[in-house]
Design brief:
This is Transcription elongation factor GreA. It holds the Pfam family GreA_GreB. Helix content is 39%, strand content 25%. It has 158 residues and is α/β, with parallel strands linked by helices. Helix 1 (9-38) packs antiparallel against helix 2 (47-71). The protein has helices at 9-38, 47-71, 125-130, and strands at 5-7, 73-75, 91-96, 102-108, 119-121, 138-143, 146-156. The strands form 2 sheets. Strands 5-4-3-7-6 form a 5-stranded mixed sheet. The chain folds into 2 domains: 5-75, Helix Hairpins (Orthogonal Bundle); 78-156, Transcription elongation factor, GreA/GreB, C-terminal domain (Chitinase A, domain 3). The chain contains 3 helices and 7 strands, in the order βααββββαββ. The two termini are 27 Å apart.
Amino acid sequence: MSNRIPMTPEGHARLSAELKRLKADERPAVIRAIAEAREHGDLSENAEYHAARERQGFIEGRVIELEDKLSRAEVIDIKNLSGSKVMFGARVKLVDEETDEEVTYQIVGPEEAEITQGLLSIQSPVAQAMLAKQAGDTIEVQTPRGLRYFEILQVSFG
């Protein structure tokens, strides 16, 4: 499997903005907070110092994580994609064959998945079951609630 991480231009921009904010705003702020806490004396009992150090550890870890993901990002502009088969970037309208509930998902990279916004990771079981299928096809997906069947109603791009 490739080390590349598929990502939409929007997902790439969002991660880049977070990285910039962490480096330009959060990192200097936490360094100032640590310096201020040090001025208050005994560090062993200084809750502000320990909280600031913990925050600094989180920020540095997230910066490293974002830099890694962005360096491996393979930005795929979905405006250039088309076709009738489900692939990365596709918007897919499904209907649950048991409940008749309709949902629409866009297949995105794992770093930008946000199920509440209809952004489904390409690595998810539902997306994996949909890949290379088209409108009219039925997929079966093993979920925590058992085997579920969905019909693909529509596949679109852009």
